Amino acid sequence: MGKTKKSNLSKIFSIFILIFIVASIILLITNKETTKSIITKYSYNDNVLASENPPAGLSVSKTPQFIIFGFDDNSYSGLEGSNGTGGMNWALDLFNSKTNPKGSNNNLTYDGEKIKASFYVCTRYIATWMSESPVYVKKIWRAAYETGHEIGLHSHNHKHGDKFNTSQWEYEIQKTIDNLTKPFDPKEKISNPDNKKGIGIPRETLISWRTPHLEFNNNTFVALKNENIFYDCSMEEGWQEDQDGTNYLWPYTLDNASPGNEILVTWNAKAPIGSHPGIWEIPVYTLIIPPDDKCMEYGAEPGLRKKLHDLRPFFDEIDGKIVGFDYNLWVIFKMTKAEVLASLKYTLDLRLKGNRAPFTFGAHTDYYSSKYYSDKGSKNDEILANTKERQEAFEEFIDYALSKPEVRIVSGQQFLNWMRNPVPLNDNMKTANN
Ligand SMILES: [Zn+2]
């Protein structure tokens, strides 16, 4: 009797173990796309100097040309019923339909994988009914997460924070995390948003931060470490006089502050920051507007630099540098589709001719939505290109970039994984520098 009971028990136990193993395998397979690129633990021990050279002594010709698109805010879902099209939904359709060059099918250099983006979100859009039901916004952010894109933090309230103390920054960071990690409910009612529901993102996948309005101070970075966020993408690089788009500094840790930011501090444009050991910086690199002798080749009218200088005298016609954000191109400089496309292509080609420092571009999915204000007429003078043209510039640039065998379009998180464990492109691959 006792023996039968025991063997029954062990049978039950074995079945239980079997179920557990099968379930684990299923989970592993279904989560492959989202978990592969995640750094879950970080002890802030990396110490990487800003350098013109690719990491780990890799030769330039074997280094992938990474492109990292980081979209901020992300308030318009573009989903049916949301009273708008484009926006986040446009970005997901675009990114989910393209793959990186196939290289040698090495997943350590993301060969042949779907291209990825980073979405730095402001959680007020899922906590408050603004332009549309927060439920639409939750659904589309969740879809981005499920298809392997990075969700990063861009604060809850999107306030001007250049005078914030550490606890004000911590509040913004923690509130964003709290909202993102609340459970996701696919059945949440559009008409009745539930503040106890979020998008169900595991805390350990949230590792990144971009500060609202690119405004930060030293306290921002103290708070990031206290909140266990370990890469920032708010600082600019490339304004140094001896840098021309072919020799930008590779991403670095903030052990020795930020060389790019120090230039802006001397111009009274940014707050100084001190040493913040181990926090990674993936900078906003300056774009370069094509000079006159290159305009035609890239599809723009010669005289573009002079045109931009006439509009905004702070633009330097000699170096042609401009902040690497879509806001600066479309809104501040009122550029056309052809001008934006030419500038993106020209900037990428400089990288490929040079040291292949990653190409980062800051953008806003909201600008690619039918809801963007400039299309409504009242502020039409602020922007020349319409929504469709803005979308086309982006789409055509991505196609151009993916025609280059060295290019890999990745999320910031994927890039950081590679940067911490650099792997060369396949030796037999034909590249522009060979
Ligand atoms: Zn923003």
Give an overview in words.
Strands 1, 2, 3, 12 and 13 form a five-stranded parallel beta sheet that branches. A four-stranded mixed beta sheet has the order 4-5-8-7. It is globular and about 80 Å long. It has one domain: TIM Barrel (Alpha-Beta Barrel). It is of the alpha/beta class. It has helices spanning 2-30, 32-35, 87-96, 124-127, 134-146, 166-181, 218-226, 259-266, 292-295, 304-311, 326-332, 337-353, 387-402, 412-420, and strands spanning 65-73, 118-121, 150-153, 208-209, 231-232, 236-237, 252-254, 276-281, 284-285, 287-288, 321-322, 359-364, 407-410. Zinc ion binds next to β1.
Topology:
Elements: H1 2-30, H2 32-35, E1 65-73, H3 87-96, E2 118-121, H4 124-127, H5 134-146, E3 150-153, H6 166-181, E4 208-209, H7 218-226, E5 231-232, E6 236-237, E7 252-254, H8 259-266, E8 276-281, E9 284-285, E10 287-288, H9 292-295, H10 304-311, E11 321-322, H11 326-332, H12 337-353, E12 359-364, H13 387-402, E13 407-410, H14 412-420
Helix pairs in contact: 6-7, 12-13
The structure holds zinc ion.
Zinc ion binds next to β1.
Number of domains: 1
The gross shape turns out to be: globular
Q: What is the CATH class name?
A: Alpha Beta
Measure the end-to-end span: 77 Å
Q: Into which percent range does the helicity of residues fall?
A: 25-40%
- Can you tell me the CATH topology? TIM Barrel
Extended strand count: 13
CATH architecture identity: Alpha-Beta Barrel
Give the helix tally: 14
Main sheet attributes: strand count, strand direction, barrel closure: 5 strands, parallel
Q: What share of the residues does DSSP label as strand, in percent?
A: 5-15%
- Structural class by SSE content: alpha/beta
Q: Averaged pLDDT, please?
A: 91
Query: How would you name the CATH homologous superfamily?
Result: Glycoside hydrolase/deacetylase
